[in-house]
Amino acid sequence: MKENFKLGGILLIIATVASLLLSCTYELTKDTIAAQSNAAKTEAMKAILPEADKFETLALDVSNYAGVGAVDKGLSDGNEVGYVIESSAKGYGGELKLVVAVSLEGKISGIKVLEHSETPGLGAKCEEPEFTDRYKEKLATAPLTLVSGSPSSDSEIQSISGVTITSTAVIDAVNKAIDIYNNELKGGQ
């Protein structure tokens, strides 16, 4: 019995030290991780709205829009050129986060996946240009629909073969961005 208490005490000490080390590591690295995440997001925004040379985060209440994060206005020489909307949806491996750029003409100028936990080789195809380019120049006036075959209308997006859950997550996130564009941004903010 005494031996069990001794082993339990040793285990408690080891667990406490490990927890403290993990906590310290988090505190030391959280600012660096946040800075890298912001840099990756800025790079993604520039890639999908290349005419913008500066981005300003809008003070927009998105609390009624589940899965929508920051909304940025893209500027070129001080003139508005479009919007970039961060949104997310549940994919096969967890949350899938992306940014969607919408031009002033109401067209999607691009999407870029920021984070995902999808299966390598399958669901991870959601970030490849072969899939993301399917969204370019689509009208952001109504929700897009996912089809397994060739699209028959301009509002349809062909899914990635064999990756329905991930394809659905991407289109859900894009449709959330379209929704906030139509309800909050269309016509200028």
Automatic annotation (TrEMBL):
<keyword id="KW-1003">Cell membrane</keyword>
<keyword id="KW-0285">Flavoprotein</keyword>
<protein>
    <recommendedName>
        <fullName>Ion-translocating oxidoreductase complex subunit G</fullName>
        <ecNumber>7.-.-.-</ecNumber>
    </recommendedName>
</protein>
<dbReference type="GO" id="GO:0005886">
    <property type="term" value="C:plasma membrane"/>
</dbReference>
<keyword id="KW-0288">FMN</keyword>
<dbReference type="InterPro" id="IPR007329">
    <property type="entry name" value="FMN-bd"/>
</dbReference>
<keyword id="KW-0813">Transport</keyword>
<comment type="function">
    <text>Part of a membrane-bound complex that couples electron transfer with translocation of ions across the membrane.</text>
</comment>
<dbReference type="GO" id="GO:0010181">
    <property type="term" value="F:FMN binding"/>
</dbReference>
<dbReference type="GO" id="GO:0009055">
    <property type="term" value="F:electron transfer activity"/>
</dbReference>
<keyword id="KW-1278">Translocase</keyword>
<dbReference type="Pfam" id="PF04205">
    <property type="entry name" value="FMN_bind"/>
</dbReference>
<keyword id="KW-0812">Transmembrane</keyword>
<keyword id="KW-0249">Electron transport</keyword>
<comment type="similarity">
    <text>Belongs to the RnfG family.</text>
</comment>
<feature type="modified residue" description="FMN phosphoryl threonine">
    <location>
        <position position="164"/>
    </location>
</feature>
<dbReference type="GO" id="GO:0022900">
    <property type="term" value="P:electron transport chain"/>
</dbReference>
<keyword id="KW-0597">Phosphoprotein</keyword>
<feature type="domain" description="FMN-binding">
    <location>
        <begin position="91"/>
        <end position="181"/>
    </location>
</feature>
<comment type="subunit">
    <text>The complex is composed of six subunits: RnfA, RnfB, RnfC, RnfD, RnfE and RnfG.</text>
</comment>
<keyword id="KW-0472">Membrane</keyword>
<keyword id="KW-1133">Transmembrane helix</keyword>
<dbReference type="InterPro" id="IPR010209">
    <property type="entry name" value="Ion_transpt_RnfG/RsxG"/>
</dbReference>
